[in-house]
Write a structure and sequence with these properties.
By secondary structure, this protein is mostly helical. It is 76% helix and 0% strand. The radius of gyration is 20 Å and the shape is globular.
Length: 306
Amino acid sequence: MPAASSLSANVKGVIFMALAMAGFSMNDALVKSVTGEMGTAQIMFLRGLMTSVLVIALAWHFGALRPGRVALTPVLGLRILAEVGASLTYISALGQIPLANAAAILQALPLAVTLGAALFLGEPVGWRRWLAIIVGFIGVLIVLRPGPEGFTPAALSVVACVVFAAIRDLCTRRIAREVPSLFITVLTSVVITLVGAALIVPGGGWKPVSLASLTHLAGASCLLLIGYQCIVLAMRNGEISFVAPFRYTSLIWSIGLGLVFFAEVPDIWMISGILVIVGSGLYTFYRENRRRAAAIAQSAEPVTPK
């Protein structure tokens, strides 16, 4: 029974991860569409302000608000700071790099998260799953075709985002379950909004905002809220090493959105890399199911008295 319950938790984690990746990818496309009109800090402020209004209203409705002292726990504070770092680095890169390229670099995140889970959380990771994730990273390299032209400031900014996001996801697992997911989202959104406001002047000052851009950011804020909530639920429901590979679904979304809205046509290298990345993720899912099925079968075997 415990094994079946754990498997159910992992399945829920996968579903939430897939929803989070869809929400984040569509948010990225909308944010990218306004990067030519305003700076990173202004985007963070406007999008964060609208997201904060939505999530605070939801948290109040569902009774998820908590006293401010709850936010003073080190692990929650570190998670919020990591999310701020991830937002800063990723938004600044979106205006300078194709959407699919940014998403491809982010596919290194499952490897970073799995390494952190094994080292700091003690989660078991077999050699086959390690190999599958490494193969997935090779797929990312195929997409990027690394060389001197590949290591641009924008690309390195996305790499920094990977580090921040890995810290965020690991911290999420250590937050007490008594702290509601909506409250975590409230704190994250409010802090990002405040940081964006503080950086507007150093980032070049306020720029006029068109109605179209404001509409895009309003849509992005709704999608970001979905992503925030689902990523917390994904990390809380399943084992990180099991759930993390399903971040690969974001690459499919990003390539489709880049093709339709930004005329970013993938070449044969991009397609080949995608097949390797998705294949490694599916194999990881297969190996985890095999491992759990074997554990259930072993626990069901009768014990012979000696």
